[in-house]
Design a protein that fits this description.
about 55% helix, mainly alpha, two-stranded antiparallel ribbon, 4 strands, binds zinc ion
Length: about 325
């Protein structure tokens, strides 16, 4: 008697795993999300006039916004999630560290969540679709809030081993996930350290902490979240997609080109999201610099034919 060879048992990983959040964690989320953002609006003109915001703060803010922002767009998103180019090891590590400074999520959770977003975009299973509750204005208002920030309060998260097994097994990257707390501390404490040393004052450290740590993180969060909320509702449809992703021009500069989100969903591995004439894409420019320096290679640049085949007719 012969027996059929048994197929290796599939270790099917579930889509999501439980992660109950305590009341304190929910309160902290609200505090980190709402308070700094409201503070920006109210404080900028007052602070400048009062001398509580100066050029040193602006410079540290800009450096940390650009480094952590490009860490997310070039690193977490275009490189780690979608593999739109290959990177030499030092660049790979630098991109992982820079993106972690954004405090958006650990690198593994960010990539896992975003890969699930692409798999189910605007359908059941999408972690943050604004269309989750329906199409009428009330459902969409609720959905926009959910897609922007509400989804972060979920008691579930995307399964890491299922959606980011490459990073879970990566000995350079996995420690950035495990020791995320230290990267959070670095992102919060480096600006006041620099501000304090440059101005040689505790006051300089304090203002740098406020502007270049708190305000900078808050602003980048809202810009990133806007890709999930605004860019799946408003804007132009220029390419054929099965979801509601759209191109939003006014977010192109603060989001470093990520708001050309319609093309991105039409062609997720493309290294350039702003691929049409006049569409500014600073992240693509930086990838081009990395390519010229020899740090990045096998970059998936868009071709005329490929773009044309995806254009809305
Ligand atoms: Zn999307
Ligand atoms: Zn993506």
């Amino acid at each position: 008697m012969t027996t059929a060879p048994s197929s290796p048992a599939k270790t099917a990983q579930p889509e999501i795993e439980p992660e109950p959040k305590s009341a304190l964690e929910r309160v902290l989320l609200v505090v980190f999300v709402v308070v700094p953002f409201l503070a920006v609006l109210a404080a900028v003109p007052l602070a400048w006039a009062a001398g509580w915001l100066g050029w040193v703060d602006v410079a540290i803010f800009a450096v940390f916004y650009i480094v952590s922002g490009l860490g997310v767009t070039v690193g977490f998103h275009r490189y780690f999630t979608h593999g739109s180019f290959k990177a030499k090891r030092p660049l790979r590590i630098a991109l992982g560290l820079a993106g972690s400074l954004s405090l958006e999520m650990t690198i593994i959770d960010w990539v896992a969540t975003h890969r699930r977003h692409h798999k189910y975009s605007d359908a059941a299973g999408d972690p943050h679709s604004p269309w989750r509750f329906g199409n009428d204005w009330k459902a969409l208002t609720k959905g926009l809030f959910f897609a922007h920030v509400g989804w972060l309060f979920s008691n579930e998260r995307t399964n890491r081993k299922r959606y980011a097994p490459d990073l879970v097994a990566d000995r350079d990257i996995e420690p950035m996930h495990r020791h995320f707390t230290w990267l959070v501390a670095a992102s919060m404490l480096l600006p006041p350290l620099i501000g304090g040393l440059v101005t040689w004052s505790w006051f300089g450290a304090l203002t740098a902490f406020f502007w270049a740590s708190l305000v900078r993180v808050s602003l980048l969060h809202h810009v990133t979240w806007s890709i999930n909320s605004v860019c799946h509702v408003f804007g132009e449809k220029q390419f054929t997609v099965r979801d509601k992703s759209r191109n939003v021009w006014w977010l192109a500069i603060p989001s470093f080109g990520e708001s050309w989100h319609n093309l991105h969903h039409a062609d997720p591995t493309c290294a350039r999201h702003g691929a049409l004439r006049g569409q500014l894409d600073p992240s693509a420019r930086v990838i081009r610099w990395f390519e010229k320096l020899g740090w990045a290679y096998d970059v998936r640049w868009p071709s005329e034919q490929r773009l044309a085949s995806k254009r809305v007719s």
